[in-house]
Amino acid sequence: RSRWIGWTDGALVFDTPEGERRERPDAVILALGGASWARLGSDAAWVPAVEEAGVAVAPFRPANVGFDVAWSSLLRDRFAGQPLKGITLTHAERTVRGEAMIAAYGIEGGAVYALSADLRDAVERDGSAALTIDLRPDITRPALTQKLLKPRGKDSLSNWLRKAVHLDPVAIALLREAGPLPTEPGPLAARIKGLTLTLTGVQGLTRAISSAGGVTLDAVNEHLMLKARPGVFVAGEMLDWE
User: Fold this and answer.
1) What percent of the chain has pLDDT above 90?
2) Phi/psi at 68 (nearest 5 deg)?
3) CA-to-CA distance for 174 and 181, rounded, in angstroms?
4) By C-alpha distance, which of 33, 69, 61 is closest to 120?
């Protein structure tokens, strides 16, 4: 039940149930977390003490975070919580493969988090960001077009897409979010291979898996020791790792 509150005359000062206590250890490792889990203690309350010691701290920002998408009520109500598996996501020149999750507010998940720094910066800079989904990355667009040339018969369009190209209901719902489905195989294949979502916002620190920002890397040496406080080392999300 002790809380470190900073330094006084070079000593670490702790607020304890028995009153103030000071310690002068030979070495200290600070591993106090970032700012994305305040309810569990990672609330960045350490920042003022570190800044008062002359250490540069970059503002905290959400990292590994989900993004807002203006879903239709139909998609949001029916598919929130549903995964998108075996997809690729592309933003700008970067493509990652993995999974994502439809959320009531938008989209999240591992593949999204891998792009989250660039996506966050784009939303903050431009007001939105484009995220392109390839729902069938293991097949080329020409080969997919050939599959879509097969007669549909009496199947509904959704059932035919499930059978012909193995799309599940959430993927088909995503295709419909972009407007009426093309009837020609070529344009339909193009949408399956390149469905673009517009991300309109970034979830905040309280929803982020981790936080960017913290002690800047030029404030520590190659051993992660604070240059302003010899013998004091910094670890984990206290560092501006991003």
Assistant:
1) 86
2) -80, 140
3) 10
4) 61
Handedness of CA 111, 112, 113, 116 (dihedral sign): positive
Write the pLDDT tens digit of every residue in 121-162.
999 999 999 999 999 999 999 999 999 998 888 888 888 898
Which residue is listed with tokens 């998609």?
Answer: 75
Tracing tokens 């399956």 back to the chain, one arrives at: 192
Distance (Å, rounded) from C-alpha 218 to C-alpha 55?
Answer: 10
Q: Taking Cα atoms as reference points, which of 58, 200, 198, 183 lies closest to residue 127?
A: 200
The pLDDT of residue 150 is: 85
Which residues are registered as beta bridge partners of 134? 88
DSSP string, 52-113: HTT--EEEEEEES--EE----HHHHHHHTT-EEEEEEEEETTEEEEEEEEE-SSEEESHHHH
Which residues have C-beta within 8 Å of that of residue 223, sequence separation ≥ 6?
A: 233
pLDDT at residue 183, as a whole number: 84
Q: Which residues pair with 197 in a beta bridge?
A: 131
Q: Which residues of the chain have pLDDT under 50?
A: none
What's the pLDDT score for residue 194? 97
CA distance 85 to 208: 21
> Measured between alpha carbons, how far is 53 from 59 in angstroms, rounded to an integer?
17
Q: In whole angstroms, what is the distance from residue 137 CA to residue 232 CA?
A: 48
The pTM score is 0.86
CA 158 to CA 162: how far, in whole Å? 6
Tell me, rounded to whole angstroms, the distance of Cα 44 from its chain centroid: 20
Query: Where are the strands (E) in 92-242, listed by range?
Result: 94-102, 106-108, 129-134, 195-199, 201-202, 210-215, 232-234
